[in-house]
Amino acid sequence: STQAKTLCPYTTLFRSSMSVWGQQEPQYTQYMFNPTVINPAYAGSLGYGSLFSMYRAQWIGLEGAPRTINLAYHQPIENSHLGIGANLLRDEIGPTSTTFAAVDISYTITLANESRLAFGIKAGGELFNIDNQKLKSFNPADPFLQQNLQNEFSPNIGVGLYYYNDKSYLGLSVPRLLETRFYDALAYSETKRKQHFYLVGGKVFDLSYNLKFKPAFVTKIVAGAPLQVDLTANFLYNERFTVGLAYRWSAALSALVGFKVNDRLSIGYGYDRETTRLSNFNSGSHELFLQFDLFKNTQIVETTRFF
Question: Phi then psi for 58, rounded to 5 degrees?
């Protein structure tokens, strides 16, 4: 066919993989630092405002590999049980790009032993693009490469539950309940975004007066895709320095470091190395985040939060 003749082998392989990759929402190694991106119930749980930014460059050296930018903010509403937040997400992979914006609102109730249970709703939408001219071709004038998909808008809604206390947390969420479909004229097929179910949890253990152990996990379930489980072990020294390791089941090993510059500003870095044959074609993934807490100078944070 004309399509088969004009597209190089790499492109054909990439296009066939898009049906699998395109169903997956962005993954994060340092997921525990911005849970609102997957769970709206986390909004406002810190007791003060928090601004978060993250950049992830995945599979360095592999052409068309994912690049993700996330900006987020959340805070409680004073004298109420409500929290609000917002997320802006930009995700690029190969010829496709997705820009997703959402607002979060949560409602929290206090349980026994100062534990809390929050319910959250996420409402937003995304713009989906396919730029077929980014594909390699022997004939750039081929009419198939001119059939792009531009700013295809789709609204969505998500829900979440988040249980937590001073030392542990557990969350369950579906950030996008509605399954959306986009037609790709070049591939003559539909790109379908399926529901992603997330289960996250973590706990803080005091090993000594200035050393804490913070294990955490996230499980992602998607119909038609393998179960994804991330297991993380972080150590926090003097409530300033974080170092840890993570394992993405049958996929990657990760190293994490973080530093609390002052009471408001924190930075962190994560590096992933694939444990599959994909490691032969890339030099790993890099992830950098910056967090700035916006509590008032007169505000007293009664209990230090470690997640």
Answer: -100, 140
